[in-house]
Amino acid sequence: MLPAKDIVPIEDDLISVLEHVPGTKAQKQQYFLTRGIRVPRTNYEALWDALTARLHRSGAASAVFELLRARMPSRLKELLREAARGRAVNLRAVEPAVVIDFFFGNGNLRRVGELFLEEMHSTGMNLGKLTTRQRPANQGAKPYEIALSFAGEDRAYVAEVARELRSMGARVFYDEFVKVDLLGKDLAAHFAEIYGKKANHCAMFISQHYVRKAWPQFERQHAQARALAEKREYILPIRLDDAEVPGLSPTIGYLDARGLSPLAVAKTLYQKCRSQG
Fold first, then answer.
1. Whole-angstrom Cα distance, residue 34 to residue 93?
2. 240 within 8 A of 207, measured Cβ to Cβ
3. Between 3.30.9.100, 3.40.50.150, 3.40.50.10140, 3.40.50.620, what CATH number should domain 137-276 receive?
4. Pick from 167, 193, 127: which is nearest to 269 by CA?
5. Residue 141 has what DSSP assignment?
């Protein structure tokens, strides 16, 4: 078990890891309940306090690491495998939040990352092989695996999908993730580049708002031009209602998100991106 003296200095880091492990608070609460540990769902500090009260600090840290192993994004697994070989990793401009919890900006492990690998070694566990199919090198040249196109009225739902995709390790374009980068840019020209050239796929969240708003129409036109030129499955339609999108074939396969959680939609999009590149 991890030494208690090593846990106290990084408790805030462990709370951050607990927060950034993929999944909702409810899902994490249920995970611990299935292991006979009752935890609150108010905030992650209270959840950590409940774990330490039941398991003490060392056991609480091990429980957080166990949760992470059960829901680890493939991107973090990939980087930890590199770090386990004693190498500094190369971080991308945009990484899942849980990756930043484990690595400094220079690619070296933080203390919480070192303790995670130490526990893996002491228990005889390993990170195993990545389960996701490796992308061909030429397809990795695109800055984004998927760009999200949506109307502002649907932002709350799309934001959850975006966060889930990022937590899985996907390179996703979602405007809130790049607010600083967008400052001062000609947005028309920049978005034309994003939806017309710089993503492997465009997830189009179709709704009555999407059809009538100006910016979604602009994004859609560039995405459709790209799809027409490439003659491949570039546009991935996600239906939020029965609105019809001009120029989009009614026979194209779509995902009906009505009744689906953002996590379920994110998983489908992630699988599609990684299966095709």
1. 37
2. yes
3. 3.40.50.10140
4. 167
5. G
pLDDT digits (tens, 9 = 90+) for 188-213: 899 998 998 889 999 999 999 999 98
Please report which residue ranges of 143-257 form alpha helices under DSSP H.
155-167, 179-182, 187-196, 208-212, 214-230
Q: CA-to-CA distance for 173 and 157, rounded, in angstroms?
A: 15
Return the beta strands (E) in the chain as ranges. Answer: 144-149, 172-173, 199-206, 235-239, 255-256
Judge contact between 198 and 143, C-beta under 8 A.
yes
| Sheet of strand 255-256: strand arrangement | 172-173, 144-149, 199-206, 235-239, 255-256
pLDDT in tens, 175-186: 988 888 888 889
